Amino acid sequence: MSERRGHDLGLHRVIEPEGALPQAAQRLDAESEAFDNEIVIDVQTLNIDSASFHQIIGELGRDEEKVAERVRSIVAERGKMQNPVTGSGGMLLGTVKAIGKDYKGPVELKVGQRVASLVSLTLTPLKIDRVIKVHLDADQMDIEGTAYLWPSSPIVAMPEDLPERVALSALDVCGAPAQTARLVAGQKRVLVLGAGKSGMLCAATARATLGDAGEVYAVDLHDTNLKLLKEAGIVDDFRTANAKVPTEVLHAVEAMTGGELVDVVINTCNVSGTEMSAILPARDRGVVYFFNMATDFSRAALGSEGVGKDVDLLIGNGYAHGHAELTLKMVREFEVVRSRLEALTGEG
Amino acid sequence: MSERRGHDLGLHRVIEPEGALPQAAQRLDAESEAFDNEIVIDVQTLNIDSASFHQIIGELGRDEEKVAERVRSIVAERGKMQNPVTGSGGMLLGTVKAIGKDYKGPVELKVGQRVASLVSLTLTPLKIDRVIKVHLDADQMDIEGTAYLWPSSPIVAMPEDLPERVALSALDVCGAPAQTARLVAGQKRVLVLGAGKSGMLCAATARATLGDAGEVYAVDLHDTNLKLLKEAGIVDDFRTANAKVPTEVLHAVEAMTGGELVDVVINTCNVSGTEMSAILPARDRGVVYFFNMATDFSRAALGSEGVGKDVDLLIGNGYAHGHAELTLKMVREFEVVRSRLEALTGEG
Ligand SMILES: NC(=O)c1ccc[n+]([C@@H]2O[C@H](COP(=O)([O-])OP(=O)(O)OC[C@H]3O[C@@H](n4cnc5c(N)ncnc54)[C@H](OP(=O)(O)O)[C@@H]3O)[C@@H](O)[C@H]2O)c1
Ligand SMILES: NC(=O)c1ccc[n+]([C@@H]2O[C@H](COP(=O)([O-])OP(=O)(O)OC[C@H]3O[C@@H](n4cnc5c(N)ncnc54)[C@H](OP(=O)(O)O)[C@@H]3O)[C@@H](O)[C@H]2O)c1
Q: Which PANTHER family match (chains A, B) (predicted)?
């Protein structure tokens, strides 16, 4: 076979516009056979981003055939599943079909292995041969198709000891626990704002990192998860408060700490307007980590300036070395996290 | 006189909505006399945010009287200068009129001193008595009025050795040099993306911090400032490239470094779509600092994930301890920076 050398960032698959990276591209080439630096995936399930899936259903109604046709036509046109309205993608699940000789990916993989992509579908060359079933309530589609990943695209082998949907929902947010482990190391007080899937995983990671050497606090609108986290010894204390009202959160935190501010704040809410609730409780030179994708850049930058807060404001990068492994480890080690994820995904 | 204790974050001036911080508030109370923790400023000049000023002129035309009336009515209605269309404010220049007995502000000030606020007008209680003159080309208005600042609001004494407009334009971006000094300390390779006002100041700060122990590179669309920075020894090398085309910037950087990536990237462009140009040139576990307010949170978060880059992504907090002093020091120490700011502001 001839040499088919690809670019490390996937530029060899970009059709237009020229010079764009695959995510910014209008159209990818998903027809060409594999390049030497690619791994080929037999795709079985597309996990469509929730915002995208709901936009499609909102437009077409809950009609499996129409939804299937829409996704098929987007992918046929763009060479990737990127909803032109929401701009978002999703993840995929499948089996390794072939590994190019120059593929040096982030983890060791072999042909036949079950894998999930940890990179957005918005930059993954994808070809759909057949849609088997649309799962309207799970934002998922079972398909027959092919995807190509190059070395810079994070990918993970699916664990064999966890229900697939539990693993997927944890992997979807796996950037947060990895950053949490780094940021809380050596600190005394940590606040987790929002105690949903990523919030629970971050609280567990903070506890695992700090042991008894630091305090982990949590705030959420409702106390269902908070109580369970406290019972399990993952958080030392919690309060319910509305993260859209910064002073409410500040008072809740001061009530827990006896008036002190915290070293690190991890914002895992899923609503907008929570920037200042994360910034106010942070101490001078503390760190605020925004995993919440509804964070507004300028509200955080100007808001922090507005209260004269000298804190580091971090954007929640979805990738960190070892992020998938660490996250699955937390699911395995903390029974309460696993059982909540099972309940949320309807498994177990 | 009676006790008039104010809240450290200015909540005592918020009329509506209840619980909001001054920046998020619809209306502030700028009528009440000073509280014990406030400093009172006789305001002489409003430096209206450029986006806001241009929106007003776009709507009303270049008519000084109409512009004055619009600003007056916004301030009368909201108790602060926050353009309801753009949401943005500006800065003010004035003279200290009174200092409350409980005002413990960020710097030592005395009555009669000339000061600039380093906090947005969007959260500063302001009352306008009279508009003296509108400077249509400078986004400025001379007025008679009163403003109140509480301890958490950054403020600075105007330097006596620099032209006022030069000092103002440097102070407007003073968050960036302070962060740059921290981030580049001990590093080997720094890239400054965009070489305008804040870019020149950041490059100078990187040079001052690193001395000969590291390399400072710069990229901009045009080479006017770049050449001057190189001649002055502030940058070691430069290239022109379009920060909206990530691979162009990556290649430019690799050409300067001999193929290496850099430890720290400082993004000071003033246009959108430059996230990936800042992320790609950063090395594994490097730092990318987004001072550019046109940065999009999710493009940075998902873009970095999309190329599997484990880098820290920092939001450009407008405040850092000592930011104004450091910035003015850079203007004084680096002749080329001062003369470029003089040229840009029409001074000197
Ligand atoms: N940066 C990245 O790479 C990346 C990747 C994936 C996801 N994310 C983001 O991560 C965020 C969290 O995802 P997730 O899967 O953990 O979501 P989730 O399970 O829905 O958790 C969000 C939590 O925030 C709580 N919450 C909502 N509004 C609140 C308020 N006003 N005050 C206090 N708490 C509030 C929710 O409480 P209730 O349920 O009790 O209302 C819920 O417990 C999302 O914004 C998502 O976009 C980021
Ligand atoms: N975070 C904060 O607290 C804060 C506070 C104030 C300002 N800011 C932000 O800081 C940024 C810079 O402010 P500034 O006063 O330094 O602006 P500036 O003086 O206008 O500098 C911007 C520079 O970026 C260059 N540039 C524009 N488009 C480019 C492209 N496509 N490729 C390469 N270079 C490009 C410009 O080049 P040319 O002039 O050659 O076209 C200019 O040299 C703005 O976005 C502003 O909003 C942030």
A: NAD-DEPENDENT ALCOHOL DEHYDROGENASE (PTHR43350)
Chain B residue numbers touching A296 (CB-CB < 8 A): 297
Residue B163 lies in a domain: no
Q: What number of C-beta contacts closer than 8 Å exist between A and B?
A: 150
CA–CA dist B261, B287 (Å, integer): 11
Q: Is A99 exposed, middle or buried (0-12, 13-18, 19+ CB in 10 A)?
A: middle
A243 CA closest ligand 1 atom index: 32
Per-residue model confidence as pLDDT tens digits over B222-271: 999 999 999 999 999 999 999 999 999 999 999 999 999 999 999 999 88
Residue-range definition of the domain harbouring residue A133: 11-158
CATH number at residue A236: 3.40.50.720
Instruction: Decide if A168 is inside a domain.
Output: no
Sheet with A39-48: list strands edge to edge. A126-135, A140-149, A39-48, A90-99, A114-117, A155-157
Same domain, A195 and A282: yes
CA distance A285 to chain B (A): 9
User: What pLDDT was estimated at residue B348?
Assistant: 58
Residues B144-202 have pLDDT tens digits of 999 999 998 989 999 999 998 889 889 989 999 999 999 999 999 999 999 999 999 99
Nearest C-alpha neighbor of A148 from the set A172, A117, A110: A117
